[in-house]
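Ticket opened by: R.M.
Priority: normal
Category: complex prediction / small molecule

The reporter submitted a protein together with zinc ion and asked that the result be attached to this ticket for the collaborator who will pick it up next week. Submitted input follows.
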Amino acid sequence: MNNSVLCLDIGGSFIKSALSTAEGVISHKRQRPLLATHWADFSAAIRSIIAEYGDALSTSSPVALSCAGVVDIAQDSILASNVPPFQGVKITQTLSADLGRTVVMANDADCFTLAEACYGAAKDLPVVLGIIIGSGIGGGIAIHGKIFKGNQGISAEWGHAPVTPTSLVVQGKTVTLPRLPCGCGQSGCLDTLGGARGIERLHQLLSGESLASQDIVQAAFAEQEQAAMTLAVWVELVSEPLAHAVNILGPHKIVAGGGLASELTLIARLDEAVRRKILLKTDEPLLIPGCHFSDGGLIGASILAHQAS
Ligand SMILES: [Zn+2]
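Result attached by the on-call engineer:
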């Protein structure tokens, strides 16, 4: 019997796909640009991907989606999505009707966390907090190898709360920051200053200079004074809400993914700052980089689908 699942990772500009015959195992990876702006074109693109896999998928094989954005289970939709075809659509319900297949969905941060908790850097640990430090800030919780969904599926969204301070003292200097409007509708969310776009905004605010996030980080490591200050402020801004999350959840590990998480020195500095601010005392790193930076969405979708079947 063909027990393959089609795993899809949908970002703002791409559709990654893979097959999975066993939980956490993917093969036949492919990627195509996301060209659709309307649902009908998106649905046609998925049918085309299914056709490409041919007999490797049965007519009843389920489809598992990992999607960028905050998944609202109650509305079967994605909040603040940067994927245009998803706007105003009941996603799993509509796609399931279009394809005649079971469709399951979680957001990319949840899928990454599941991948790390089951087959990655936090394998077999009971409580895992996954954090995404990509273009923005995201998060997921896995408890005993399953996604903890929370009310309406919205949990671990530590990047979205009005938490950024308007004044803080870093390295003896008082820094004043505006509370910027966020895509979620609030102002002062960490997401506005904490991800790659956020650190660029922060550097612009503090120095007047426009630099790419990776260049700011590298300049800071090279002890360029202004970039070093930006990074010090960033570590303070990000470590505070993360410390709150740790005190509330009590994760055995925090696993980091997303573009900035590949900067190991940055993650080590953030880990040290978080451990200074939490009640748990440990000499071991609590925040560690993940193993599944590029395939976390697909692997997590595979786990989701096999757990649901
Ligand atoms: Zn927000």
